[in-house]
Amino acid sequence: MSDLTFSGALLPGADPRRARLQLTALFRLTDPDAVEPFFRGGRVTLRRGLTPAEAERLCERLRAAGLDCEVSPEPETEPETEPEPVP
Description:
Layout lengths: L1 E9 L5 H11 L17 E7 L1 H13 L2 E7 L14
Antiparallel strand pairs: 1-2, 1-3
């Protein structure tokens, strides 16, 4: 599985208004101001647990709108082990 992250930055030459509207539409938000916290800098995970193909498809749409996004594999978690029985 993969995560889709956004750096909070726009790609060179991107239209800030269009980028914000695209992000608003992609996540089906009704309030365009709801995406403003994503643009304050720092990496934000937009979606978790996507298949690599889903994550790449969404990232390409965001890049087309001028957003600097990245697909990264989810960190693997180690299976929990049961404690040793006490004799």
